[in-house]
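User: I'm curious whether this sequence folds into something compact or stays loose and floppy. Could you predict its structure so I can see for myself?
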Amino acid sequence: MPTVKLDSIKTEAPRPQRRPEWIKVRQPKGETYKMLKGLMRSKELHTVCEEAHCPNMGECWGAGTATFLIMGDICTRSCGFCDVKTGRPLPLDWQEPLRVAQAVQAMNLKHVVITSVNRDERKDGGAPIFAGCIKRIREVKPDCSIEVLIPDFKGSEEALKIVMDARPEILNHNVETVPRLFRKVQPQDHYEWALATLANAKKMVPDGLTKSGIMVGLGEEWDEILAVMRDLIDCGVDILTIGQYLQPSKKHLPMARYYTLAEFKELHRLGLEMGFRWVESGPLVRSSFRAHEQVALLGTK
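Assistant: Here's the prediction. I'll summarize afterward.
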């Protein structure tokens, strides 16, 4: 596909000193938010909403939805963009899938997203916990569709098969950035592992939905973004999310620049043109943004 030149859109700009007006993060509040936070603590569960300081947490929790973070809150990898703690994690809790299912039932969710820290100390990467969560949720809330946002399991097909055999509605793995920046952004990850995870998931369950996401604003070039999008299409990815990188703290990777609303709109158009079945592209878009709509409108449940 030929590269599209954008006469009215600048793809390079100096790093701004202030957030543009379209970057507005709502503070979490309200009775529903308080109830959900209390429920998570009572079940000894974590959410990526809290751990990653998601800008949509207030909106999502206020609407009664959340993304569960399983296998603890300590990651074995140290990505430059992520605010989850790095270190030696505690042993896996094999009762966690039951507690996740109980929380899903208590919240009466129609769609749930389950993600995790990396557990590289295990050969299976913790894949059985993902499968256990899917199984337990099916038992207590069979009408709830399930999306799993998984690690790359270091490219292990055996670990991936454990998850895919449980048949989640959506298998999500984010590439996060372009190949040139991979070592800088995700020093323990490999672009090839990410693509293999997505391609193998589609081969294992051809009628399942696969999904991936990209952050922009880390110093990538426009043509590099389009090249990653084409790679994802080649892997059979159905759903693409594109969002603005926001530096969690001064110790994290600096942001190169803010993308404009026009640029996000153009990436949305180009993504659909390339063949993605669904594209979410915007400043505050994150992996689970409108995930329930994706499942509903793409016809899985």
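Summary: Residues 1-16 have pLDDT under 50 and may be disordered. The first strand starts at residue 46 and ends at 47.
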